[in-house]
Amino acid sequence: PSIVIVLLGTLAGDLYATAQEARAQSVGCSDALTYLGEAAVVSVGTLFQAAILPGILLALLYASYAFGFAILNPSKAPPVQGAPASDEIITRGEALTWFLAVPMLLVVGTIMASSLGVIGSQNVTVDSFSDATAGASLRTNVSGQCSEAMIDLHGQEAWDTALAEQAEIEAGGGAVASTRLTEDELVTARADKIASRAPIGTGIAIGFLLAALLLALAKGIAPSMDARPLAIGALGIVLGLLADILLISPVTSPGMTFLILLIPLVLTLYGARAAARPPLILIIAVLGSILGGITNPTPAAALGAGGALMLAAFRKLQERGGSGRIILATAFAVVVMILVGVNFDLRVGVGETNLEQVLAYIVAQAAYLFAIFGLFYACLVLWFDGVLPSIVRETAKVTSMVFTILIGSQLLNLVVISFGGEHYIQSFLR
User: Fold this and answer.
1) Residue 71 buriedness (CB in 10 A; 0-12 / 13-18 / 19+)
2) Of these four, 136, 151, 262, 275, which has the most CB atoms within 10 Å of its CB?
């Protein structure tokens, strides 16, 4: 369904806009914006939301087919290599506690704290212009025929609300334009913004939440392991949150924030090291970078690909008795690069640059160069072991297919429109 949406997305958006314009004019309104109260557009996000349920249904059907085929024809199914049995015994109570109850409690608690204002954004940027007067929710200076059609569409209550809003605007002297704030007004607005910020920042809260989830899952995987490292990690999480509440303000510099959180971070990383499961850490790092606002899905996918390369290379090196120190150092360099990039402004030479920014830039650049070297080293390890060539071929096939679909979709749209396909579709929908 997502491919179909990509193919027909432009056509569907044009059809919707054209149909709404024709609908508005047929009831006596000048345009669709007046009649609908909003622009007659269909966003890409809306189209993909419409494809979610059909996509899930088709995925379940395909999975059911593959499972049934494997059951009926075991000889034709791909082989499954069983992992060596573990001596760890996990009871039902321990599994429910550490895999379900504790993670759910952590996530629900974070959501509740965010809704209560304990966790929130630390942004203190204020606009240098005042807010302009907002218009009425619906346009009221329309013809009688259009007003009747708008009442039928939106309801009498919405129409009365729009009339009351317009009357209030006119009673206040009409719409007020946005004006530049004075220095005193900017200082007052910034002080109000700082006072309204939540005690715990969103990024710090999500980071420590992911660390707590990692510790909980590690305890569930190995209930009999020494609990002291996990307790130390949990103590670091608690100290980090308390430090954010008591010592860090929205205007604290990134360098000072890093120094305040240094000890809690060291304790948390010590606990996470004992709970280290490379695939689990990779998944949490990719999802955490998105949820924490560090990256968007595109660089997060690159982070996941680099992590997968390092995991595969590290496993191959272990299989043949080699040392994986370079891979581990590369992973550490990636972590350092992300932490420095998040906590410091690395735009040196732009505006006023202080010593803190210069040192952070040097550390980030050194971590970046070593990470690139480590990724090339991982690629060479996988290449000489014969793993990477087949993966590159399959990736090239998928990538070429996607680009062929994107280019062909535009040609398909042009062909359909040139032969009047939108008129046939509109007639069919009517």
Assistant:
1) exposed
2) 275
